[in-house]
Amino acid sequence: MTELSLTPFSPGCGVTVDNVQLAALDDAQLQALRAAFAEHGVLFFREQALSPEQHLGFAKRFGELVINKFFQPVDGYPAIAEVRKEKAQKTNIGGGWHTDHSYDEIPAMGSILVARQLPSSGGDTHFANLYAAYDGLSPGLQKTLKTLRAVHSNKHLYGADGYYAGTDIAGQLGGHDSVGDATHPMVIIHPESGRHTLYVNPGHTLGIEGWTMEESKALLDYLCQHVAQPQYTCEFNWQPGSVVFWDNRATWHYAQNDYHGESRLMHRVTLAGSRLAAA
Ligand code: SIN
Questions:
Q1: Rounded mean pLDDT of 218-244?
Q2: Domains in the chain: how many in total?
């Protein structure tokens, strides 16, 4: 067995994992990766060269897969979603802070993104550490947040009248009839680490249960600017062979859209999670 090497990626967000080939993970390495995933929320890997089969095989070592209802699947691989932007397109998928599938009753545990085609520069992905951001709030606000639930949705993005319908990537997104909402506690107990983490995100969280839209917006805006501060975030520059595995219960991410005139193609596999428990 080769022992994994873990190096903090930035002072407050993520860890780089070396000394591992994800296509040939032994059981001890799998256990070490599980522990790192629960502790750090986002794992960065380089020089992996995973085939689609190996991508799926790696994901299945961690649990069941969920199929994204809106993204196009990769030909012949229904469980791999394409995150694609073509040369002529101006809009990208996931261009604002969000976490995947928070609009589901049982939200996704994690996502594994593999770089397939990269622009000559740009197209980085930013991540935020929600454990650290929660710990950075005052005890008074933490206590209040623990009493609240928030509504998450995908209608405003993927519905027939949603944001993407009016963009130049409308044709590559489907599932308009599969949109829906879910409510979740605003502070959850992370199912693996047992830590408390803030569970709201700018992309999908529309409001706070029992509050007006105006009241909700004021608190959600405050929380969103708090999480997006540099001490809780990091920026990952993709290279051929890069793979990122993030925890959707403990991080946010967004894809920087700064490479107009070039293409970018990523393959994403999403892992099923469990019902979220209030802290
Ligand atoms: C996503 O939002 O899942 C995709 C992120 C990326 O393309 O970097």
A1: 98
A2: 1
Distance between CA 250 and CA 197 in Å, rounded? 6
Report the separation in Å between the CA atom of 33 and the middle of ligand 1, taken as the mean of its atom positions: 21
- Ligand 1 pocket residue status of 74, Cβ below 6 Å: no
- Which CATH number covers residue 38? 3.60.130.10
How far, in Å, are 99, 165, 206 from residue 157 at the CA level? 13, 8, 11
H or E, element range at 128: strand 125-129
- Rounded to the nearest whole angstrom, what is the distance from the C-alpha of residue 163 to the centroid of ligand 1? 17
Residue 133 belongs to domain spanning: 5-278
CB of 125 shorter than 6 A to ligand 1: yes
Q: Is the pLDDT of residue 1 over 90?
A: no
Sign of CA dihedral 208, 198, 227, 154: negative
Instruction: For residue 2, name the pLDDT band (cuts at 50, 70, 90).
Output: confident
Nearest CA to ligand 1 atom 8: 255
Q: What does pTM read for this prediction?
A: 0.97
What is the position in ligand 1's atom list of the atom closest to the CA of 123? 8
Residue written as token pair 């994800």: 22
pLDDT (tens digit per residue) in 69-104: 999 999 999 999 999 999 999 999 999 999 999 999
Block residue for tokens 């839209």: 213
Annotated catalytic residue 55? no
How many alpha carbons fall within 13 Å on the CB side of residue 71?
A: 26
